[in-house]
Design brief:
The complex is a heterodimer of chains A (207) and B (118). With 207 residues, chain A is of the alpha+beta class. Chain A has a single domain, classed as Aminopeptidase (3-Layer(aba) Sandwich), CATH 3.40.630. Chain A contains 5 helices and 8 strands, in the order ββαααβββαβαββ. Chain B has 118 residues and is an alpha/beta fold. The longest helix of chain B is centred in the N-terminal third of the chain and has 17 residues. Classes of the chains: A alpha+beta (207), B alpha/beta (118). The interface between A and B is medium-sized, with 22 and 13 residues.
């Protein structure tokens, strides 16, 4: 089954790492998973140019077991505390064992971006290869950090990271009542590609 | 209880087949397995009979024409089944549950109670 993508290619997105101040005055850092483990308040800022090529070649990407597992464990912690009301289509799973199993599959895709506030992981966005040369997108922000502009910055960083990694087609499904999520996706150029199912499918041409 | 299970060959429907045959063997409910795969694949029918035999059931296996969703709803209603059972959806690469059009149709249109098997 071939998916429909917009004719137009999306704009260039900003590549992580970058930082910004959210609508509630919090300093938020957007970083790729596996590229940097937070220690104290020090930020692992890298030059915005020049090191992207090496990062896309796997340097910035390590198995979840590496980094002493700190980054992985922090991410697990975020999902264990995740508000059940914010679950979508069965993810994230409810139990910790399910979360660990699910995260291993997702992170295995190799294209993950996290939002950090100090030492807490407060958001995660991911592209998972669909086996048909495209990627499925999902994004999560913990409830205390929602409605502060973090989702937009996470999307920006994820799509920028996806462009670095050469991703072309990106798609997602969203529950039809989820106006907030759909507005976010539209803002980044996603267009409705399939309305046949329970969930709406949207897609974006990254390059 | 008379149970009607719909199987279309998707992974979710085969999972439902294995779970339901196992369960019915324990409860003694009467099971009818309706196969709807559009193309008449004998492989699927063999797979269904194998599951029925494995559970040592005296179940009815039949084929439905056309769209699985509407055919299931029609049969369940016109023949007085107590329960309709279908697969509970496929998982996307991300792990999201996606309900097929057929499942959606069954959920919205069946007058019979429906069980989704995860």
């Amino acid at each position: 089954m071939s998916r429909v993508y917009p004719d137009e290619v999306a704009r260039e997105f900003e590549r992580p790492p970058f930082t910004f101040t959210d609508d509630n005055g919090r300093e938020i850092a957007i970083r790729t998973y596996g590229g940097s483990v937070p220690d104290g308040n020090e930020r692992h800022e890298q030059g915005s140019n020049g090191d992207e090529a090496s990062e896309s070649d796997g340097e910035g990407r390590q198995p979840a077991e590496d980094n002493g597992g700190i980054e992985f464990e922090t991410l697990v912690e975020m999902y264990v505390a995740f508000d059940p009301a914010d679950r979508a289509q069965g993810i994230p799973p409810a139990r910790e064992s399910g979360i660990r199993e699910w995260l291993e599959t997702v992170l295995d895709g190799g294209c993950d971006v996290l939002a950090w506030h100090e030492n807490d992981c407060v958001g995660h966005a991911t592209l998972v290869p669909d086996g048909e040369n495209a990627y499925e997108l999902a994004i999560f922000v913990t409830s205390e950090y929602q409605r502060a502009g973090i989702g937009s910055q996470l999307m920006e960083g994820l799509l920028g990271h996806g462009q670095t990694r050469g991703a072309a087609g990106v798609w997602l499904t969203v529950e039809r009542w989820n106006d907030v999520a759909m507005a976010l996706y539209r803002k980044f150029g996603f267009e409705t590609s399939n309305t046949d199912s329970f969930e709406l499918e949207m897609s974006l041409r990254l390059q | 209880m008379e149970v009607l299970l719909g199987v279309d060959g998707t992974d979710g429907s085969l999972r439902a087949l294995d779970r339901v045959t196992e369960r019915v063997a324990a409860t003694g409910d009467e099971l009818t397995v309706a196969i709807a795969d559009g193309g008449g694949e004998t492989d699927l029918e063999a797979r269904v009979r194998e599951a029925v035999d494995r559970a040592d059931l005296d179940a009815t296996v039949r084929r439905l024409d056309g769209d699985l969703g509407s055919a299931l709803v029609n049969v369940a209603e016109s023949e007085g089944f107590d329960r309709l059972v279908v697969g509970g959806g496929e998982r996307s690469p991300m792990g999201k549950i996606e309900l097929s059009q057929e499942t959606q149709f069954v959920l919205l249109n069946a007058e019979t109670s429906v069980t989704l098997v995860r």
